[in-house]
Amino acid sequence: MVAIEEVQGDHDKKNTKPVPPKKKVSSKSTSKESNAKKYNDLMGKMSKEKEKWEDEDKGIGRDERDEMLSQAIDMALEQGRGWSSGEKEAYLEKILDDDFIPPMFATSEEDMERSGLKDAFTSLIYDGESPTSLMLQFRKKAGDSFANGKRNEVGNRQYFRDAINHYYEALAWAEKIEPLQEGDLAQADTDDPTYTKEELGEQKSAICSNIALMHIQLKNWGYARNESRRATEFNKSSVKAWFRLAKAYEMLKNWEDAGDAIDAGLSIKGEENNKDLRKLQKRLEDKIRKARKLRQQRAAARAERVSNVKAVWKYCKDLNIKLGRTSLVTSVTDDDEDDDDQEESRWHQHLPISGVLPTKKSGSEWTWPCMFLYPSHKHSDFVKDFGEDEMLAMRMAQMFPELEDDEEGETAMPWDVNNEFACSKLAVYFEVHHDDEEGDGVVHPESIELLKDQGSCMRFYESSRALKGDEGPEMGNVIRAVERKYLYHQRKRWKAKHGSLWAKPDPCTVVRVHPGCTLIDVLKDSRCVVPNFIVTFIMFPESHPAHEAFLKEHKCLGVLQPESS
After folding, report:
1. CB-based burial of residue 363 (10 Å sphere; 0-12 exposed, 13-18 middle, 19+ buried)?
2. pLDDT in the model for residue 255
3. Of the N and C termini of the chain, which has fewer Cβ atoms inside 10 Å?
4. Which residues pair with residue 530 across a beta bridge?
5. Rounded to two decimals, what is the model's pTM?
C-alpha cells in the first residue's frame, strides 16, 4: 500500500521537438526585394572585380597577400552563393522583418521565441547536460525546498513556492526526453536512466502530483485540483494523485467529484483499503451521498423539462403557433448597469418571468402565461394560467369589472386615478412583429427573433431558467456570458447592415382583438408571435390620449374577430 503524504520520486516527459516559429509576412515586401537585389548585385560585382584583378595579374605574378585576398574572395563568393533554393530569400525576409528582434536584444521570452533560437540559447546554459539529468537535478532541488519548508519553524511559505518553480522546470525538461521505443536498448554512452513511454508518463505524473502537494501546502485549492487532475491523466494508477485530487475537491466543496476521485483511487489494484482514502471517504460519506442524490434529482427534473418543452413545441407546430424570443440581457459588459438598462428595455416586464411554459392541464386543454401591458399608466399584469378556450371578455371582466351605476364608483387599481379601466372601455391589441423580413438572419436587438426549431426553443428555455437562478449562481454567470455574446453578435450584424443601432425598424403594426375572441383565436392567427412563451396584450382606455398617440405610431391592420362569428 502506498503512503499518501510523501513527495513522489523523479519523472520525465516525452520529448517534443521545438516547432519553428511561423514566418511573418512583412508589409514592406518591396523593400525586402530591393535589399535582396542589392545583395546579389554586390556578390556579382565582387566576382567581376576578382576576374578583372586576375587578368591584370597575368604575367606579373601574385605575392602572398594577393593570394590570401583571392582565397578570401573565393570563400565569400562560395558562402554567398551556397544558399539552397529560396533559403537566402527566406533569411533576408526574416532579418528585415519589422518585428524581428535579434536574440541578443530580446527582452522577454516571447521575443526569444520569435527569434527561433530559444532552444539554442537554453542549450548553451546547460551545455553538456541531458534533459534526463536536468529533470533529476530540478526534482532534487524541489525536494530539498519542500523539506526545508516542512522543517521551517516560522512557517515561511516561500520554500513551497520555490519547490513549485523547480518542479515546473523539471516538468519542462521531462517533456524533452525521448522515450525508448519497443525493442530499443538503453544507450550505452550515458549513465542517465532511460524510460519507456509508460515509465515517462509515471515520472510526469509524479511531478504534477508533487506540484499539487505544494499547492495544498499553500492552500491554493484550485491549482491543486488542476495539477492533480493532470497527474491522473499521465498515470491513472497514481493513488497519491487521486487522494490529492479528492482533497482539493473537498476544500472546494465539490462533494460529488471528491467521491468520484476517492472511488477511482480505491479501484487501483492493491489500494482497495488505502487508509488515507478510506479515512477521507468516511469523513465525506454523507455529503457525497447527498450530492449524488441531488444530481439524480436534477437529472430527473431536467428530463421532465425536456419532455415539457418537446410537448409545447410539437403542439405549437401542429397548430402553426409561432414562438419567438428576445434578448435575455440588456448589456454586453460586466458592469453593474443591467438594472438601469432593464428599466429602459421595451421587454423589461418579460425578463423576470421569461421561460414560463404553457402547460397542459387535462385532456387537450392548455393554459398559457399572459402579460397585459398598460402603456398609458406604465403598469402591467401577469396571468400565469390563461385557458385557451377562455374568452378575453370574461378575463377582462374579472380584472376590470364594470363600475357601479352611481357616480362615486371607483376601480380597484390604485394607479387608475381617473377610473378609466373598466372592461367595456378598453381596447385590446397584439403586436405584429417583423422578423427577418429579408431572410438574412439580421434582427434588431429589441425585436423578436423566431424560434425556428426545437433545439433553439430548448436552449432559450434553459437559459431563461438559469438566469433566474434555478441552476445556481455559477451556471447563471455562464449563461449570462453566453447571452451577452449573443446580444453582442446581434448588435454587430445589425450595425454591419444598417450602420447604427439607432437605425431601428419601423414600429410594429398591431391587430385589435375583439373581446369575444378566445385565447386560441389569437394564438392561431398567422400574424401573432408569442415572445418568450408569454402571450402579450396591450390595453388602452378608449378615450385616453395615449391610445390616440399609439395608433398614430402603430398602424392597425384590423380587428381580429371570434372564430365562431
Report:
1. exposed
2. 95
3. C
4. 323
5. 0.62
What is the rounded CA–CA span in Å between residue 428 and residue 541?
9
- 3 phi and psi angles, rounded to 5 deg: -75, 150
Cell of 100: 524581428
- In angstroms, rounded to a whole number, what is the distance separating the alpha carbons of residues 412 and 401? 9
Spatial distance between the Cα atoms of 429 and 525, rounded to a whole number of angstroms: 13
- C-alpha radius of gyration, the chain, whole number: 38
Do 207 and 139 touch, CB atoms closer than 8 A?
yes
HEC sequence for 30-61: HHHHHHHHHHHHHHHHHHHHHHHHHHHHCCCC
HEC string for 150-202: HHCCCCCCHHHHHHHHHHHHHHHHHCCECCECCCCCCCCCCCCCCCEHHHHHH
| Residue 13, pLDDT score | 41
Residue 530 has which C-alpha cell?
Answer: 408569442
Q: What is the pLDDT of residue 406?
A: 53
Residues of the chain with pLDDT under 70: 1-39, 42-43, 46, 50, 53, 56-85, 87-88, 91-92, 95-106, 109, 112-128, 182-190, 334-348, 404-409, 434-440, 564-565
Number of helical (H) and strand (E) elements in the chain, helices listed first: 18, 10
**C-alpha cell recorded at residue 384:** 400565469
CA distance 424 to 420: 10
Distance CA 104, CA 185 (A): 40
Query: What separation in angstroms does the CA of 17 have from each of 20, 113, 200, 208?
Result: 9, 14, 16, 21
Best CA proximity match to 276, nearest among 226, 232, 323, 241: 241
Rounded Cα distance, 500 and 132, in Å: 61
Neighbours of 226 (CB within 10 A): 17
Instruction: Please classify residue 313 by burial: count the beta carbons closer than 10 Å to its beta carbon, then call 0-12 exposed, 13-18 middle and 19+ buried.
Output: buried
| Listed residue (315, 316, 342) closest to 331, CA to CA | 342
Is the separation of the CB atoms in 370 and 536 below 8 Å?
A: yes
Cell numbers found for residue 432: 405584429
Length of the chain: 565
